[in-house]
Protein backbone atom coordinates (compact mmCIF):
# COMPACT_ATOMS: atom_id res chain seq x y z
CA UNK A 1 0.00 0.00 0.00
CA UNK A 2 1.18 3.50 -0.80
CA UNK A 3 -1.31 5.85 0.91
CA UNK A 4 -4.51 5.76 2.96
CA UNK A 5 -7.35 8.29 3.11
CA UNK A 6 -10.24 8.93 5.48
CA UNK A 7 -13.04 10.38 3.31
CA UNK A 8 -15.47 12.38 5.44
CA UNK A 9 -19.21 12.64 4.73
CA UNK A 10 -19.36 10.18 1.87
CA UNK A 11 -23.17 10.38 2.32
CA UNK A 12 -22.94 13.38 -0.03
CA UNK A 13 -21.87 11.19 -2.95
CA UNK A 14 -24.78 11.12 -5.38
CA UNK A 15 -23.38 10.30 -8.83
CA UNK A 16 -25.77 7.65 -10.20
CA UNK A 17 -24.67 7.64 -13.82
CA UNK A 18 -22.20 4.81 -13.37
CA UNK A 19 -24.10 2.31 -11.27
CA UNK A 20 -24.54 -0.99 -13.03
CA UNK A 21 -24.51 -4.05 -10.83
CA UNK A 22 -24.56 -6.24 -13.96
CA UNK A 23 -20.94 -5.23 -14.62
CA UNK A 24 -19.96 -7.68 -11.90
CA UNK A 25 -22.36 -10.45 -12.81
CA UNK A 26 -19.64 -12.72 -14.24
CA UNK A 27 -17.55 -12.43 -11.10
CA UNK A 28 -20.55 -13.10 -8.89
CA UNK A 29 -21.56 -16.08 -11.06
CA UNK A 30 -18.17 -17.70 -10.55
CA UNK A 31 -18.32 -17.09 -6.81
CA UNK A 32 -21.85 -18.46 -6.58
CA UNK A 33 -20.77 -21.58 -8.46
CA UNK A 34 -17.91 -22.09 -6.03
CA UNK A 35 -20.21 -21.43 -3.09
CA UNK A 36 -22.53 -24.16 -4.35
CA UNK A 37 -19.64 -26.63 -4.61
CA UNK A 38 -18.34 -25.55 -1.21
CA UNK A 39 -21.66 -26.19 0.52
CA UNK A 40 -22.05 -29.47 -1.42
CA UNK A 41 -18.66 -30.68 -0.15
CA UNK A 42 -19.74 -29.97 3.42
CA UNK A 43 -23.06 -31.70 2.82
CA UNK A 44 -21.17 -34.77 1.57
CA UNK A 45 -19.29 -34.90 4.89
CA UNK A 46 -16.00 -33.68 3.51
CA UNK A 47 -13.77 -33.80 6.56
CA UNK A 48 -11.29 -31.05 5.73
CA UNK A 49 -12.05 -27.54 4.48
CA UNK A 50 -9.03 -25.57 3.24
CA UNK A 51 -8.94 -21.93 4.34
CA UNK A 52 -6.33 -21.24 1.66
CA UNK A 53 -8.66 -22.69 -0.98
CA UNK A 54 -11.53 -20.48 0.19
CA UNK A 55 -9.37 -17.35 -0.03
CA UNK A 56 -8.08 -18.30 -3.47
CA UNK A 57 -11.58 -18.96 -4.83
CA UNK A 58 -13.31 -15.93 -3.33
CA UNK A 59 -10.41 -13.52 -3.97
CA UNK A 60 -8.80 -14.80 -7.17
CA UNK A 61 -6.96 -11.58 -8.04
CA UNK A 62 -4.30 -10.19 -5.74
CA UNK A 63 -3.42 -6.70 -7.01
CA UNK A 64 -5.66 -3.63 -7.03
CA UNK A 65 -5.16 0.10 -7.41
CA UNK A 66 -7.78 1.01 -4.78
CA UNK A 67 -9.29 -0.71 -1.74
CA UNK A 68 -12.61 0.74 -0.54
CA UNK A 69 -13.53 0.31 3.14
CA UNK A 70 -17.19 1.02 3.85
CA UNK A 71 -20.40 0.00 5.61
CA UNK A 72 -22.24 -2.72 3.70
CA UNK A 73 -25.46 -0.72 3.97
CA UNK A 74 -23.78 1.65 1.48
CA UNK A 75 -23.10 -1.17 -0.96
CA UNK A 76 -24.84 0.29 -4.04
CA UNK A 77 -23.33 3.74 -3.48
CA UNK A 78 -19.86 2.21 -3.21
CA UNK A 79 -20.29 0.02 -6.28
CA UNK A 80 -21.37 3.17 -8.09
CA UNK A 81 -18.10 4.84 -7.10
CA UNK A 82 -16.10 1.75 -8.08
CA UNK A 83 -17.74 1.73 -11.52
CA UNK A 84 -16.92 5.41 -11.94
CA UNK A 85 -13.26 4.94 -10.98
CA UNK A 86 -12.87 1.91 -13.21
CA UNK A 87 -14.62 3.27 -16.29
CA UNK A 88 -13.53 6.90 -16.27
CA UNK A 89 -10.12 6.67 -14.61
CA UNK A 90 -9.15 3.06 -15.42
CA UNK A 91 -8.45 2.12 -11.82
CA UNK A 92 -8.85 -1.47 -10.64
CA UNK A 93 -11.03 -1.20 -7.51
CA UNK A 94 -11.53 -3.77 -4.76
CA UNK A 95 -15.05 -3.95 -3.27
CA UNK A 96 -15.31 -7.01 -1.06
CA UNK A 97 -19.07 -7.56 -1.42
CA UNK A 98 -18.65 -8.01 -5.19
CA UNK A 99 -16.48 -11.06 -4.59
CA UNK A 100 -17.49 -12.39 -1.21
CA UNK A 101 -21.10 -11.32 -1.10
CA UNK A 102 -22.63 -11.47 2.34
CA UNK A 103 -20.69 -13.60 4.81
CA UNK A 104 -23.76 -14.00 7.00
CA UNK A 105 -25.65 -15.67 4.15
CA UNK A 106 -22.70 -18.02 3.65
CA UNK A 107 -22.67 -18.80 7.36
CA UNK A 108 -26.38 -19.64 7.30
CA UNK A 109 -25.82 -22.20 4.56
CA UNK A 110 -22.89 -23.78 6.37
CA UNK A 111 -24.60 -23.81 9.75
CA UNK A 112 -27.70 -25.50 8.34
CA UNK A 113 -25.46 -28.40 7.40
CA UNK A 114 -22.84 -28.42 10.15
CA UNK A 115 -24.49 -27.04 13.27
CA UNK A 116 -28.10 -28.23 13.52
CA UNK A 117 -28.98 -30.73 16.24
CA UNK A 118 -31.60 -33.45 15.82
CA UNK A 119 -34.11 -31.20 17.61
CA UNK A 120 -33.72 -28.50 14.94
CA UNK A 121 -31.75 -26.11 17.16
CA UNK A 122 -28.23 -24.93 16.49
CA UNK A 123 -25.34 -26.35 18.50
CA UNK A 124 -23.74 -23.40 20.26
CA UNK A 125 -20.14 -24.70 20.15
CA UNK A 126 -20.33 -25.84 16.52
CA UNK A 127 -21.87 -22.49 15.54
CA UNK A 128 -19.03 -20.60 17.22
CA UNK A 129 -16.49 -22.85 15.50
CA UNK A 130 -17.77 -22.21 11.96
CA UNK A 131 -18.24 -18.49 12.60
CA UNK A 132 -14.77 -17.93 14.06
CA UNK A 133 -13.10 -19.80 11.20
CA UNK A 134 -14.92 -17.93 8.44
CA UNK A 135 -14.43 -14.56 10.12
CA UNK A 136 -10.70 -15.15 10.44
CA UNK A 137 -10.43 -16.39 6.85
CA UNK A 138 -12.22 -13.29 5.57
CA UNK A 139 -10.17 -10.97 7.78
CA UNK A 140 -6.89 -12.48 6.55
CA UNK A 141 -8.04 -12.16 2.93
CA UNK A 142 -9.06 -8.52 3.36
CA UNK A 143 -5.73 -7.66 4.98
CA UNK A 144 -3.94 -9.26 2.05
CA UNK A 145 -5.96 -7.13 -0.39
CA UNK A 146 -5.20 -3.94 1.57
CA UNK A 147 -1.49 -4.68 1.52
CA UNK A 148 -1.49 -5.27 -2.22
CA UNK A 149 -3.58 -2.20 -3.12
CA UNK A 150 -1.94 1.14 -3.86
CA UNK A 151 -4.57 3.33 -2.21
CA UNK A 152 -6.86 2.70 0.75
CA UNK A 153 -10.04 4.78 1.22
CA UNK A 154 -12.35 4.64 4.21
CA UNK A 155 -15.72 6.08 3.12
CA UNK A 156 -17.32 7.59 6.20
CA UNK A 157 -21.14 7.65 6.25
CA UNK A 158 -23.91 7.55 8.83
CA UNK A 159 -23.91 3.78 8.32
CA UNK A 160 -20.33 3.41 9.52
CA UNK A 161 -20.27 5.87 12.44
CA UNK A 162 -23.08 6.84 14.78
CA UNK A 163 -24.37 10.26 15.81
CA UNK A 164 -21.67 10.48 18.48
CA UNK A 165 -18.96 9.96 15.87
CA UNK A 166 -18.24 6.44 17.09
CA UNK A 167 -17.08 3.76 14.71
CA UNK A 168 -19.65 0.97 14.89
CA UNK A 169 -18.30 -1.76 12.59
CA UNK A 170 -15.68 -4.25 13.82
CA UNK A 171 -14.89 -5.09 10.19
CA UNK A 172 -14.09 -1.47 9.35
CA UNK A 173 -12.08 -1.19 12.55
CA UNK A 174 -10.02 -4.22 11.50
CA UNK A 175 -9.42 -2.80 8.01
CA UNK A 176 -8.44 0.66 9.26
CA UNK A 177 -6.19 -0.77 11.96
CA UNK A 178 -4.36 -2.91 9.45
CA UNK A 179 -4.06 0.00 7.02
CA UNK A 180 -2.20 2.01 9.68
CA UNK A 181 0.29 -0.80 10.21
CA UNK A 182 0.95 -2.17 6.73
CA UNK A 183 4.29 -1.31 5.18
CA UNK A 184 4.13 1.57 2.73
CA UNK A 185 5.18 0.73 -0.81
CA UNK A 186 6.63 2.78 -3.65
CA UNK A 187 4.67 5.41 -5.51
CA UNK A 188 2.46 3.71 -8.12
CA UNK A 189 2.74 4.53 -11.80
CA UNK A 190 -1.00 5.10 -12.09
CA UNK A 191 -1.25 8.27 -10.02
CA UNK A 192 -3.04 10.76 -12.26
CA UNK A 193 -6.09 11.07 -10.01
CA UNK A 194 -5.05 10.93 -6.38
CA UNK A 195 -1.57 12.41 -6.59
CA UNK A 196 -2.39 15.60 -8.46
CA UNK A 197 -4.15 17.19 -5.47
CA UNK A 198 -2.12 15.76 -2.61
CA UNK A 199 -0.62 19.18 -1.89
CA UNK A 200 -4.13 20.49 -1.15
CA UNK A 201 -4.77 17.94 1.59
CA UNK A 202 -1.29 17.36 3.01
CA UNK A 203 -1.90 19.82 5.83
CA UNK A 204 -5.04 17.97 6.91
CA UNK A 205 -3.08 15.12 8.41
CA UNK A 206 -3.21 15.50 12.17
CA UNK A 207 -5.32 18.64 11.89
CA UNK A 208 -7.89 17.24 14.31
CA UNK A 209 -7.78 14.91 17.25
CA UNK A 210 -9.30 11.48 16.71
CA UNK A 211 -11.59 10.91 19.67
CA UNK A 212 -11.69 7.65 21.61
CA UNK A 213 -14.65 5.74 20.16
CA UNK A 214 -16.32 2.42 20.79
CA UNK A 215 -13.83 1.29 18.18
CA UNK A 216 -11.23 4.02 18.19
CA UNK A 217 -10.83 5.22 14.62
CA UNK A 218 -7.24 4.52 13.57
CA UNK A 219 -5.44 7.52 12.07
CA UNK A 220 -4.96 7.00 8.34
CA UNK A 221 -2.42 8.98 6.32
CA UNK A 222 -4.85 11.75 5.37
CA UNK A 223 -8.22 13.11 6.44
CA UNK A 224 -10.02 14.01 3.25
CA UNK A 225 -13.23 16.10 3.43
CA UNK A 226 -15.81 15.09 0.89
CA UNK A 227 -15.50 18.43 -0.91
CA UNK A 228 -11.82 17.72 -1.60
CA UNK A 229 -12.57 14.11 -2.53
CA UNK A 230 -15.21 15.16 -5.04
CA UNK A 231 -12.73 17.56 -6.68
CA UNK A 232 -10.35 14.67 -7.26
CA UNK A 233 -13.07 12.71 -9.04
CA UNK A 234 -13.72 15.35 -11.67
Description:
By secondary structure, the chain is α/β, with parallel strands linked by helices. The chain has one domain. Helix content is 46%, strand content 10%. A 5-stranded parallel beta sheet has the order 3-2-4-1-5, with helices on both faces. Strand 2, helix 3 and strand 3 form a beta-alpha-beta unit. Helix 1 runs parallel beside helix 5, helix 2 crosses helix 6 and helix 6 runs parallel beside helix 7. The protein is globular. The relative contact order is 0.20. About 3% of the residues have low confidence.
Number of domains: 1
Helix/strand class: alpha/beta
List the uncertain runs.
207-213
The Cα radius of gyration reads 19 Å
Cα shape: globular
- In the sheet with the most strands, the strands line up as 3-2-4-1-5
By DSSP (H or I, 4+ residues per run), the number of helices equals: 9
Secondary structure: number of strands: 5
Q: Percent helix among the residues?
A: 40-55%
- Proportion of residues in extended strands: 5-15%
Q: What's the SSE pattern?
A: EHHEHEHHHEHHEH
How far apart are the first and last residues' alpha carbons, in Å?
24 Å
Mean pLDDT: 79
- Major sheet summary line: 5 strands, parallel
Observed structural traits:
234 residues; alpha/beta; five-stranded parallel beta sheet; 5 strands; 46% helix
Report a brief summary of the structure.
The protein is an alpha/beta fold.
Topology overview:
Elements: E1 3-7, H1 25-43, H2 51-58, E2 64-69, H3 75-89, E3 93-94, H4 96-99, H5 103-114, H6 124-148, E4 149-155, H7 170-181, H8 198-201, E5 222-224, H9 226-233
Parallel strand pairs: 1-4, 1-5, 2-3, 2-4
Amino acid sequence: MYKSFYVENFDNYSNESFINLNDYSDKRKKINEYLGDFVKDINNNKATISGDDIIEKFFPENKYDIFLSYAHSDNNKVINLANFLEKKHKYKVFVDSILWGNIYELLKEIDKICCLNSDGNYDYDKRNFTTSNLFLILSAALHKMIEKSDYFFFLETKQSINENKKLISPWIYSELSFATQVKRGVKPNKNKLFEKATFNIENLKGSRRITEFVYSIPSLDYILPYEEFSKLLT
